[in-house]
């Protein structure tokens, strides 16, 4: 891994640590302040907005990272496309908010949906600015717009929630975050003008036509469970599931997404430079890092899942869901890293086929399992994602990208998990936040003692050249 990649990884990790850490802190605060139904309403509104954000930003990061054209000219054209799409989507959600809310089992959330929809044009603009930084692995400049916007929104949300504003508090915080991001990005130097270049637009549209559907499928994959539970079981059932999901989401978003965000431009640069023979080793290093680091985090979270009751006894039922979703998160982390390699190496159609198969399998299974409750939905997620792992590895192998020597990191993760389980059984039951933190540190130390020595040369953060 090059020094640039290492620095990029560290800065992107720091950005995600603050911005996503702020999100999980808000989630935990809302779990204390909100009822299950209120938290479920928030989760459903966010799911709709997330889908809109992906539609307006389809292919933006990819085309800006890969283009051989003037990146500023292309980014200005993409800005016009993305913000225009965001404005149209916002108007559509505002107009259809009533039927959408009713279909999700939350008819009282119509006003919240309309307010949340107003964020879309702003997040579209911020996304293009982030893409320019992404192209050059200049993640340091993302700190202010990403983390600064998140902290502003978090402060608004928690302050209003503490005064009894309910789900409205979260949506107002969402609006503040969305508006702040492009403004703060401009402060860091990512200033773009709305432009239109026919050649740039044609390139963007061609790439969006290939990877755009995959991006839409990807966001549906991580939101369709919320929508299914809300439609069939109501927002109260979504509340406990969404809390478990957001906790299980943290290792994925903090580690796998960071690694994938660095891997894509590295692989794209290797392809542009005619160094494609280095791709398998690069994929191996990032796969090992994803498996070892997210694996350790998920082991600790799963073994401490019962501690979720520190947020309130009403969340006790979410503990079993959290354990299951840890298995889901580990599988999804591997898939995410491998998908970035496929896309960067020009195998976008295979990526789209895999994502489509994942969504079809998940939707089919959810039709059969959702009525059995949130825990059954979590089991479904685990089963489907691990069905895709060997299939995706075979696709990587056919493309000449499959990581080599995976037995060692897999064995290390299993051994570390077993030792951590032994430590967990030997220690007394933790009580309170400090007890959970102390036990978590002990479990992490046991895991690292086994895993780090045998994988130290390939873990992210070591300046060993690819």
TrEMBL record:
Tagged with keyword Zinc: no
InterPro entries: Poly_Biosynth_Transport
Pfam family, one: Polysacc_synt_3
Entry membrane topology: Multi-pass membrane protein
GO cellular component, one term: plasma membrane
Protein localization: Cell membrane
This protein's UniProt keywords: Cell membrane, Membrane, Transmembrane, Transmembrane helix
Residues annotated as transmembrane: 12-34, 40-64, 76-100, 112-132, 204-229, 249-271, 283-305, 317-339, 351-370, 376-397, 409-427, 433-455
Record-linked PANTHER family: LIPOPOLYSACCHARIDE BIOSYNTHESIS PROTEIN WZXC (PTHR30250:SF10), PST FAMILY PREDICTED COLANIC ACID TRANSPORTER (PTHR30250)
Family membership noted in the UniProt record: Belongs to the polysaccharide synthase family.
UniProt name for this protein: Polysaccharide transporter, PST family
Source species of the chain: Lentzea fradiae
